[in-house]
Design the sequence.
């Protein structure tokens, strides 16, 4: 599971959860996130974890509270992503044994997240920061800090972001939209994997 691409399935309906997850896994994307502002997200997460938990990492996004982190943990999911840096949510996530991927934008937020125990940093919205902003922040982060660019980043941008120090990407609308067919999701997933692999 070394390819650092996280599929963000915002708006996913539980009836499509298993087919969509299988399509992504077959294409080579094995980190799958369902934001909690999707329809019945815990149902989707639990179903995907039960079916694909040995083949993929299933997690939740848009997790804003400690209670939500607990509910996600109860599904068997393995990681939590947030749009913000909340030390209490990070600490609770780690106490529950899950991976923590909080959203950050400034150096202060980056260091606060790491100090609270975050496993990696989610630069969000990355499109507003740009690769040069990440390059500047990367210069002061501890060596080995994993950084994901999320929000306004697609396959065509991977090379620039990787050169600036991004380890991976969270892919939302460029990879999945609720109205897309499974075939379209598969095509987008294969294109994303190819673009990522091309960056070395």
Sequence:
């Amino acid at each position: 599971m070394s390819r650092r691409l996280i599929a963000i399935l915002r708006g996913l309906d539980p009836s499509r959860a298993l087919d969509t997850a299988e399509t992504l896994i077959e294409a080579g994307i094995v980190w799958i996130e369902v934001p909690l502002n999707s329809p019945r997200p815990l149902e989707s997460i639990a179903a995907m974890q039960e079916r694909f938990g040995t083949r993929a990492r299933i997690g939740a996004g848009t997790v804003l509270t400690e209670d939500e982190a607990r509910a996600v943990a109860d599904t068997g999911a393995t990681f939590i992503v947030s749009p913000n840096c909340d030390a209490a949510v990070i600490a609770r996530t780690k106490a529950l044994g899950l991976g923590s991927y909080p959203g950050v934008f400034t150096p202060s937020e980056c260091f606060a997240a790491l100090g609270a125990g975050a496993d990696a940093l989610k630069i969000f919205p990355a499109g507003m920061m740009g690769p040069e902003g990440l390059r500047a922040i990367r210069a002061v982060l501890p060596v080995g800090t994993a950084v994901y660019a999320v929000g306004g980043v697609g396959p065509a941008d991977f090379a620039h972001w990787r050169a600036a120090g991004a380890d991976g990407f969270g892919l939302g609308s460029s990879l999945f939209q609720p109205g897309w067919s499974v075939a379209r999701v598969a095509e987008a997933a294969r294109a994303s994997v190819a673009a990522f692999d091309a960056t070395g």
The longest strand covers residues 31-35. The mean pLDDT is 97. The domain at 5-198 is CATH 3.20.20.70 (TIM Barrel).
